[in-house]
Design goal:
globular, five-stranded mixed barrel, alpha/beta, Spore Coat Polysaccharide Biosynthesis Protein SpsA, Chain A, 2 domains, 356 residues
């Protein structure tokens, strides 16, 4: 276990959950479901599999202060802020370089910080198998989500035959045929019918030996950056100097779609990327005619509304309104049509700077 590491990606913006989320405090840093944040839950799920001192977090300068508060259980030197926004491949390469400098024999998991997973035992079983496979083979491992509907908003992983391994695992891995772009609704329906597709949840596991070899073959700029980090006598200075010049590219394009061998394990745990207020509503209390709310409300002849009140001493009352999203904070109030939940991020272009 001492060679197991995790890189948690905790950047991103807060536009979909405005006004509760802001640039300095996006979804993963909010108490949306209970008194813990999604970032805290991500760290907690790793207990027993990955030593606390081997968990690294990558965020940005706007969110660094809040991330340090939430992740206070980690060593201060395990939290890093990107000096520039450069997409997921440079971010992952930064994490690889930092881990390589500590342990060249490491096996590491790359995990998002903003996904809701409640079945910890099942998650740990899947991740444990993934770490075992990655440490004993030359494969990159992905954890995919079994599609529950033909979603056109996710990338998909197409699975081929069962992978041949010379050791046993609890969960069967499959060879990955290819990664598929976000499909149109008709193609997503076809993927669902075929049954050999998984949603790409952005969870990857690999040994440093394998991933660095693949990057040297396919993305030499990132491989060179990793080598510079690994050998640097001043890591902070190297990051500040080199990272902003890296080409912005996703980890899927830079690595996963080109790698020699990728295996997929389908998740047996629950999973939700809680991508909008519609997703959050499923976990709130129901009051009246299908109104989902985090606090007691007063309502008359109002249906299918989503209410999130972040003010301790205030009350929201609804009269004769349907299909609304109402979010109250200390300095802002959102009232939106629930059918336009995905468009809330567009408001960021119109809002004053102090509310972003």
């Amino acid at each position: 276990m001492s060679h197991n590491y995790a890189l948690i990606l905790a950047g991103g913006s807060g536009t979909r959950f405005w006004p509760l989320s802001r640039n300095a405090k996006p979804k993963q840093l909010l108490n949306l479901f209970d008194d813990t944040t999604l970032l805290q839950q991500t760290i907690t799920r790793l207990q027993g599999l990955i030593p606390t001192e081997n968990i690294l977090i990558l965020t940005n300068s706007l969110q660094e202060e809040e991330v340090r508060k939430v992740a206070h259980m980690l060593p201060a030197g395990n939290i890093f802020a990107e000096p520039a926004k450069r997409d997921t491949a440079p971010a992952v390469a930064l994490g690889i370089g930092l881990i390589a400098a500590r342990d060249p024999d490491a096996t590491m998991a790359v995990l998002p910080s903003d996904q809701l997973i409640q079945d910890i035992d099942s998650f740990q079983s899947i991740l444990g198998d993934s770490l075992s496979i990655a440490s004993q083979t030359d494969a990159l491992v992905t954890i995919g989500i079994k599609p529950t509907w033909p979603c056109p908003s996710y990338g998909y992983i197409e699975r081929g035959p069962s992978a041949a391994l010379d050791f046993d695992t609890t969960h069967e891995p499959f060879e990955v045929t290819c990664f598929r772009e976000k499909p149109n609704p008709e193609l997503a329906e076809q993927f669902l019918r075929q049954g050999n597709f998984a949603w790409n949840a952005g969870m990857f596991v690999w040994s440093l030996k394998t991933v660095t070899a693949e990057l040297k073959n396919h993305t030499p700029q990132l491989a060179e950056f990793i080598d510079e980090l690994k050998d640097s006598s001043d890591v902070s200075a190297t990051i500040a100097e080199k990272f902003p010049s890296l080409t912005p590219i996703s980890i899927d394009y830079a690595l996963m779609e080109k790698a020699s061998r990728v295996l997929n394990i389908e998740a047996t745990f629950d999973w939700d990327d809680v991508g909008s207020w519609i997703s959050i509503a499923k976990y709130l209390h129901t009051q009246g005619e299908s109104n989902q709310t985090n606090r007691e409300i007063t309502e008359i002849e109002s249906e299918n509304n989503i209410i999130f009140n972040d003010r301790q001493n205030s009350r929201i009352a609804l009269l004769g309104v349907d299909d609304l999203i109402v979010v109250q904070t200390d300095d802002a109030l959102l009232i939106a049509n629930r059918h336009q939940a995905d468009d809330i991020k567009k408001l960021s272009d119109q809002l004053p700077e102090n509310l972003l």
